[in-house]
């Protein structure tokens, strides 16, 4: 007598395969979103480090000589050369939030980092007051991922910190 699968057995096997595929696709799409968030963070860090390292070795930015380079952190990152109009980084899919200085609890809408060519340090200001340390969060709205950073005026290096959730 010949044995064969019944229709019910075939449906059960197909259902199990479908469930496994659905679960795999869900985890796969989350991984893609996480990789996109990581990529946006790396773009931001690369953009900042490009400005920082170029300032260490040159007094030119985009072919323009400058005395002072101002990096502005608001909801994004942009810069200005000698008070000319701001040039946006055009990094999409991110938001800078929770700008704060040494003072705990106070949030500010923006921060200026003032770079002088060939200098290791930079000025950190909210527009009126000078500060020694700037803290901020880089938020990826698509998945809510946060990356926390610190910049100290003595070195002006961008340092990733552990986020206190």
From TrEMBL:
This is Prepilin-type N-terminal cleavage/methylation domain-containing protein. SUPFAM superfamilies: Pili subunits (SSF54523).
């Amino acid at each position: 007598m010949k044995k064969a699968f019944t229709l019910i057995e075939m449906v059960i096997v197909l259902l199990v395969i479908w469930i496994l595929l659905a679960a795999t696709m869900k985890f796969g799409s989350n991984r893609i979103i996480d990789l996109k968030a990581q990529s946006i963070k790396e773009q931001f860090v690369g953009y900042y480090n490009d400005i920082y390292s170029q300032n260490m070795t040159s007094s030119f930015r985009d072919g323009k000589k400058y005395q002072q380079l101002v990096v502005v952190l608001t909801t994004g990152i942009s810069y200005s050369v000698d008070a000319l109009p701001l040039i946006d980084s055009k990094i999409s899919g991110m938001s800078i939030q929770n700008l704060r200085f040494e003072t705990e609890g106070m949030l500010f809408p923006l921060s200026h980092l003032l770079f002088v060519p060939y200098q290791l340090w930079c000025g950190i200001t909210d527009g009126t007051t000078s500060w020694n340390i700037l803290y901020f969060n880089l938020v990826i709205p698509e998945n809510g991922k946060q990356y926390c950073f610190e910049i100290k005026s003595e070195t002006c290096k961008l340092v990733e910190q552990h986020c206190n959730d």
